[in-house]
């Protein structure tokens, strides 16, 4: 499972790093040593993410653990998109509060400084976490599959959204159209220009997918002018 996570990382970060270099030539030209560090930390994270994922995948296949289902008729069809939203919202909530906690000075130095050592981050920073931080992230989806029913295809959708947003939020430019980012709906969603601001100013914009918690708690400072 660790190998799969690592392969997914190389495929997604590699793809968006390549697109970044074509879209914005020279964007990260002088960040070679930093990108190598990002890749090294990300591979350590892949090893950590792989362990609970592997246990859950085995338990699901061999032991019938988890609430992952394969028969579309097991739940009403409308539940399929709802389950994706529930997973993303639960993940976002967990991320927001653990992320805010990791910005306390002592915890920051121990767990989160690695992620912020990327200045500015690149597509390779998607999984560039200290092992302690990787642990906090690695348990979320494996815990949710025991609690919230989800069709295996929809779980794939959740993982795809997680992967693509994790990478693109760090690549330093906005891939979504201005019309969406600046729309009413865009005001609730996190894309590159929102997370970029977190990396610029640290004490704001803590969310992962949605701006719900940031807006509710007054930590939303809006979009970065630089992405
Ligand atoms: Zn980040
Ligand atoms: Zn942070």
TrEMBL record:
Record carries keyword Membrane: yes
Coiled coil (UniProt feature): none
Keywords in alphabetical order: Membrane, Transmembrane, Transmembrane helix
Sequence intervals crossing the membrane: 39-60, 72-90, 139-168
Occurrences of domain Fatty acid hydroxylase (ranges): 85-219
Location within or outside the cell: Membrane
Superkingdom classification of source: Bacteria
Gene Ontology molecular function, alphabetical: iron ion binding; oxidoreductase activity
GO terms of biological process kind: lipid biosynthetic process
GO cellular component, one term: membrane
Keyword Membrane: yes
Stored Pfam families: FA_hydroxylase (PF04116)
Major site of localization recorded for this protein: membrane
Record PANTHER family: STEROL DESATURASE
Protein name as it appears in the record: Fatty acid hydroxylase family protein
Organism in which the protein naturally occurs: Qipengyuania pelagi
Upper classification of the organism: Bacteria, Pseudomonadati, Pseudomonadota, Alphaproteobacteria, Sphingomonadales
């Amino acid at each position: 499972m660790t190998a799969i996570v690592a392969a997914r990382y190389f495929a997604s970060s590699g793809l968006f790093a390549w697109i970044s270099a074509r879209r914005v030539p020279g964007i990260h030209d002088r960040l070679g040593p930093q990108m190598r560090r990002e890749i090294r930390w990300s591979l350590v994270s892949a090893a950590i993410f792989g362990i609970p994922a592997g246990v859950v995948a085995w338990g699901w296949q061999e032991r019938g653990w988890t609430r992952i289902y394969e028969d579309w008729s097991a739940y009403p069809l409308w539940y399929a998109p709802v389950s994706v939203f529930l997973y993303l919202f639960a993940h976002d909530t967990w991320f927001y509060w653990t992320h805010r906690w990791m910005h306390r000075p002592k915890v920051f130095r121990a767990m989160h400084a690695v992620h912020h050592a990327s200045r500015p981050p690149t597509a390779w920073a998607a999984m560039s976490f200290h092992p302690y931080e990787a642990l906090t992230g690695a348990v979320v989806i494996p815990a949710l599959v025991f609690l919230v029913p989800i069709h295996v295809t929809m779980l794939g959708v959740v993982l795809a959204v997680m992967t693509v947003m994790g990478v693109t939020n760090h690549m330093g430019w906005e891939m979504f159209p201005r019309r969406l980012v600046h729309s009413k709906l865009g005001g609730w969603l996190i894309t590159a220009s929102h997370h970029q601001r977190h990396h610029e100013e640290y004490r704001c914009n803590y969310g992962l997918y949605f701006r719900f918690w940031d807006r509710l708690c007054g930590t939303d400072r809006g979009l970065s002018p630089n992405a």
